[in-house]
Design goal:
By secondary structure, this protein is α/β, with parallel strands linked by helices. It folds into 2 domains: 201 residues, Response regulator (Rossmann fold, 3-Layer(aba) Sandwich), CATH 3.40.50; 139 residues, Glycogen Phosphorylase B (Rossmann fold), CATH 3.40.50. Helices cover 44% and strands 14% of the residues. Helix 13 packs across helix 15. The protein has a 6-stranded parallel beta sheet. The N and C termini lie far apart (53 Å). The relative contact order is 0.13.
């Protein structure tokens, strides 16, 4: 074994030591929270001074006005006939988005990974990002010639996609453009990346609709010339469903081993609960998307941690909130977040903790009272199937854009 590999292995072991994680995490948490608060206060002052206020009921009219002002009149389609052009790299769970989009019609996707470019290269090299502009436009042109494209869905940041390319799409093809971001509390601005910023701030004025999972960020987008809509993540219930296997572990967590998370896992173990953790950085390794439900099957409790990066008490809605609740085989227990309370009945469909002590106590109750736990798990899945799938989210967006006809609305 080389010296470098030995050093890296030692670093990995140290990184998971609770004492180190606690000290490092507190310092990083202060950085994350301070940055977030500065951004929040900056935009709160600007919104107040300019009379900016986000209202969900205003979104359809705002989008229609934005499209009309640039001469865009989207064609109305029935479900199954909507042609989506996507900019969705095949990273992590992202293919779930494409599967959901296909329920509305054909999908043509531009995946920069298939063009010999990596996310790491794009983040480090603005020229690598710019080099995607021409092949992206050409791919859209070919797709549009074969069958008219109805809209463009983008799941990317300013380090992956040029605002100039989005403007070309808008000007040359005249189709509505939507960009989704699920991490605005920590990445809205980002760092300087050539002629633009690496977050969403440079893309916001270029697209027709900015989809954010952070309600507080809606007015940030408006201040930067964007047209936002608040929508949380969705779930893929066909992947995340219980197979009713035997329970082997008290608590299961699936997610990366960063920030405060190792401390939380050790806290549960210290209090007598058996815990299995999977994901990047954990000794038990990662699990593919199609294997997560099998891991959930073994648990009496599915644990969530809603903190942003290293900040345990700065929360955001996460995709796992819906995937885990949709599973239905064990109750989902996660950090309390007022935004999450918009989408679930806390204590009836999901469980939430505000402190580590509450987390331990709720987990113990789930273990001791399986009938109560099963009732919550079943209610969570029912709510997800009724309201929180990815097709539900895309149906809302297509409705706001005026693309999906009235007869195609309803249950997604």
């Amino acid at each position: 074994m080389t010296v470098g590999r030995v050093v890296n292995r030692i670093k990995e072991r140290v990184r998971l030591e609770p004492a180190f994680v606690e000290v490092w995490g507190r310092w990083r948490s202060r950085q994350v929270v301070a940055g977030y608060r500065a951004l929040r206060e900056r935009y709160a002052k600007e919104a107040s001074a300019r009379g900016i206020r986000y209202r969900e009921s205003d979104v359809p009219a705002a989008v229609a006005r934005r499209l009309r002002d640039r001469g865009c009149s989207p064609a109305t389609r029935s479900r199954g006939e909507v042609h989506t052009f996507g900019f969705v790299p095949s990273l992590s769970w992202h293919p779930q988005l494409l599967a959901a989009l296909r329920t509305f019609g054909p999908v043509t996707n531009f995946d920069y990974l298939q063009h010999g470019t990596t996310l790491e290269e794009l983040r480090e090299n603005p020229q690598a990002r710019r080099s995607l502009d021409s092949p992206l436009i050409e791919a859209l042109r070919r797709a549009h010639e074969q069958r008219p494209v109805d809209w463009c869905f983008i799941y990317a940041t300013g380090s992956e996609l040029s605002a100039a390319a989005v403007r070309r799409i808008r000007d040359e093809f005249g189709v509505p453009t939507v960009c989704m971001c699920l991490d605005d509390k920590q990445s809205f601005v980002g760092r300087r990346h050539g002629e633009q910023w690496s977050g969403q701030i440079s893309l916001a004025p270029a697209v027709d609709l900015c989809w954010t999972s952070s309600p507080v960020a809606t007015e940030w987008y408006m201040a930067e010339g964007g047209c936002p809509i608040y929508l949380p993540e969705g779930c893929s219930p066909e992947l995340f469903r219980s197979r009713r296997a035997a329970k082997k572990t008290d608590v299961v967590f699936v997610g990366g081993a960063y920030g405060f998370r190792p401390v939380i896992i050790e806290y549960l173990r210290f209090h007598g609960l058996s815990v299995l953790a999977h994901g990047p950085g954990w000794p038990d390794g990662t699990v593919p998307d199609d294997g997560i439900a099998t891991v959930f099957d073994t648990a009496r409790v599915i644990l969530g941690m809603g903190g942003v990066a290293h900040a345990e008490n700065l929360t955001t809605v996460k995709g796992r909130d819906f995937d885990a609740a949709a599973h239905g085989g064990a109750p989902y227990l996660t950090s309390y977040n007022p935004d999450l309370a918009r989408h679930f009945h806390i204590g009836e469909e999901v469980l939430c903790y505000a402190t580590r002590d509450e987390m331990v106590e709720l987990a113990r109750r789930c273990v001791a009272d399986p009938e109560w736990a099963e009732k919550i798990a079943a209610a969570g899945r029912t709510r997800c199937l009724a309201e929180h799938t990815w097709p539900h989210r895309f149906q809302r967006v297509l409705s706001v854009l005026g693309i999906l006809d009235a007869g195609s609305l309803g249950g997604a």
